[in-house]
Amino acid sequence: MHQHPHTQRRTRSLSSALAAVAVLVGIGLGPTPGAHAADNPYERGPAPTNASIEAVRGPYAVSQATVSSLAVTGFGGGTIYYPTTTSDGTFGAVAISPGYTGTQSSIAWLGPRLASQGFVVFTIDTNTTLDQPDSRGRQLLAALDYLTRVSPLRTRVDSTRLGVMGHSMGGGGSLEAAKSRPSLQAAIPLTPWNLDKTWPEIQTPTLIVGADGDSIAPVSSHAEPFYENLPSSLDRAYLELNGASHFAPNSSNTTIAKYSISWLKRFIDNDTRYEQFLCPLPRPSLTIEEYRGNCPHQS
Ligand code: 9J3
Ligand code: ZN
Predict the structure, then answer these.
(1) pLDDT bracket for residue 25 (50, 70, 90)
(2) In the record, which residues are listed under signal peptide (predicted)?
(3) What CATH number is given for 50-293 in this structure?
């Protein structure tokens, strides 16, 4: 009985000592800044800032490889932009289609811009520059299949983490691709054009980018109904560029880049470090006419 209080005191101080040791071990052996792989195996690159997602280049040096149209079937070849390093494991990948009468050069700026943030980016040519959205959708998928199964760079890509983007008819094509392949993890149609206005089949988190001054694919009959006719249960967003034309996605554009990077990171890499740029919803500004979406994101 006399010993009892002493034993308890001793036990408490031993627990405290062990806890202190555990904290010290945690500090000594735990993740260092930038090494978050144990938390999320898909996370790549350092913690983002507003400056880092607006920058013309991200943290990864980028290499590129030309894919001849003669070497592939189902699409028109293209250019693969990829992080040069082989020290960071595999990367998610995105295929990007140009619009009507356009070639990959019309969307080329997105190659190094996105790849330098930690993605393999395949800007493609289509079989003919007159191909319609349904064809462009099939071609985006053929390009991803080539990239993940045939390309010499296939070992650098995580074939379970794929997305699609496209401009205008290519944006309409990216909706078609997501509709037919629900395993895609992100879609970003840029000033998209499509005769089909309804997308209840899509299960892929989709960011639709419209331009307030678009007279070729006016947002009132394209981007806005596409967004509104995605499932309301889906992670989805509508970004309308302020003071922008149908051709805004054809040259370097910081607003397109920062929200595309955030969307791809958030949904292809499950990287919640980028949620801060998407939620709460961005407010109207000199570059954003309006932004619609759901917050917080669910998937
Ligand atoms: O840039 C585009 O792909 C525009 C789509 C378009 O003008 O379609 C009209 C036939
Ligand atoms: Zn439809």
Answers:
(1) very low
(2) 1-37
(3) 3.40.50.1820
What does the DSSP assignment read for the chain? -THHHHHHHHHHHHHHHHHHHHHHHHHHHSPPTT--TTT-TT--SSPP-HHHHHSSS-SS-EEEEEE-GGG-SSS--EEEEEES-SSS--EEEEEEE--TT--GGGGTTHHHHHHTTTEEEEEE--SSTT--HHHHHHHHHHHHHHHHHTSTTGGGEEEEEEEEEEETHHHHHHHHHHHH-TT--EEEEES---S----TT--S-EEEEEETT-SSS-TTTTHHHHHHTS-TTS-EEEEEETT--TTGGGS--HHHHHHHHHHHHHHHS--GGGHHHHSSPPPP-SSEEEEEE-SS---
Residue 106 CA: which ligand is closest? 1
- Separation of CA 213 and ligand 2 centre (Å): 25
* Residues recognised as catalytic: 168, 214, 246
| pLDDT tens string 177-212 | 999 999 999 999 999 999 999 999 999 999 999 999
Task: Give the predicted TM-score (pTM) of the model.
Answer: 0.88
**Span 25-37, mean pLDDT?**
44
Q: Where in the chain is the domain with CATH 3.40.50.1820?
A: 50-293
Confidence of residue 39 (pLDDT cuts 50, 70, 90): confident
- Surrounding ion ligand 2 within 5 Å at CB are 196, 198
